[in-house]
Write a structure and sequence with these properties.
CATH architecture: Roll
Mean pLDDT: 96
Pfam families: Pyridox_ox_2 (PF12900)
CATH superfamily: Electron Transport, Fmn-binding Protein, Chain A
Organism: Chaetomium thermophilum (strain DSM 1495 / CBS 144.50 / IMI 039719)
Number of strands: 9
Number of helices: 7
CATH class: Mainly Beta
Protein name: Putative FMN binding protein
Amino acid sequence: MPLRNLQYPKHPYNTVKRYKDRADYSLSTIHSIFNTSPLLHISFVDPNSDVPFPSSLPMIGRLGSFTNPSADLGEVLDLYLHAYVSSRLVNLVREASNSPESKGFPVTVSTAHVDGIVLALTPNAHSYNYRSATVFGYATLVTDVEEKLYAMQLITDGVVPGRWENTRVPPNKGEMASTAVVRVKIVSGSGKVRSGGCHDDRGDLESEEVTGRVWAGVVPVWTMYGEPVPAGYNRVAEVPAYLEEWRKEGNRGREELAKEAMKE
């Protein structure tokens, strides 16, 4: 466990301006939001393109520390992203890494969870219960074989814990050659969390006509993983215990979290 509650430093690009009371800069909160998300969105500007818009890609990633694999979520971690070896992002990261003075390729990575739909008396007071996080950093390619294998296992087990050792591993030469791992050294980040119920104006709350006609409350939201469906060539008679336990415990945990988020 970290000795103190580490916080990401505030900069103009990561400081939450609206609803500042929902902001959270702690590493533990931000890292937890990232490591419980099945999908991340990576945004960047291609310096070689004349397209005026930044790109945004959905990718799979996981936070961890190769030098300290047992590091807590509240400690300094790197973000590892799974990518194809000749993708545009990887080519840009490779190009940036060729400069000896470069920190890497600048990227912004974000993710979010919705825990509830908040239905108030008026549309303007509607909201979500949510947990969102964004990190900013410099991306480089992982070239060390041991670190690459560490990251590949980290990402795989981030999808389903224990999956790596329960598959055909290690990857063969072709798989290693076609897979790239991007490491993002995080410079800063921020989180934003909303929980609770409806927050309506006093005028609406005091109107019997409004409160008597409009339903108000929270619809809790959580992801449910269904029953595993075997592949046509599957010869394993039963769903493995590690997979079934992860599915059931995950469903239960996300439901509890969504219902807990409704409390003020």
